[in-house]
ABC transporter permease (Streptomyces incanus), 257 residues
Amino acid sequence: MRGENAALGAAGLAGFLVLGEVIPRLGLVKQEYFPPVSRIAEALGTEVGDSAFWTALGDTLTGWALGLVIAVVAGIVVGVLLSVVPYLREATASTIEFLRPIPSVALIPLAVLLYGTELQSVLLLVVYAAFWQILLQVLYGVRDVDPVAEETARSYGLGTWARVRHVMWPSALPYVMTGVRLAAAVALILAITAELVIGAPGLGARIAVAQTSQAVPEMYALVVVTGLLGLLINIGARTVERRALAWHQSVRGEVTV
């Protein structure tokens, strides 16, 4: 079944690449705006051979990784604290509901005022966007804790942190891993967006330079790189999720199928 799905996916990708090559050459779209795939591939090869490209890629991955780690740690810590201290959860409920819908891109002017085009600007946007993915999943996971298991732990005299470790955390972990996977994708989007709009060093800034200099094939090549980067991050996040939840019924059922 997996082999068949892989074959269908490869066939779909091949068809997409053929269309991307044929449509511009037939004149259905102007090659100045959408060059054939072969020209994009040639530009991609040139980019890969440029040391500045690898520096930009490193800058993007640095902002993405640091922001994601900060968001994951902060989201888990805050989520657990809000879950074990009911009064704290009630006191912050309105604040969370107010802050959560604010788009991260709306904070770009604030980031520029505070940090200019430095890495901190990227981190501010990445952490703000990814933090909510983790926090909400932690809160949802805690709500899913079996009340019978919670009461049993209390009856055996387990303290607050013992219950967090042995009861709450195993129940919330599947939700946390889902939040990490979503946050990883969101963090990449915001890292690229910050570089593109603010001009912070990275692939986004390189895309902006290619656009303004009318280097269209190079621009598309860099866009392809960001897409491949997102794909690799998603695959990596799913792999980590499966390993972390190897004991969970959902993953065991997936492996069996």
About this structure: The chain has a mean pLDDT of 85. The CA atoms of residues 9 and 180 lie 26 Å apart.
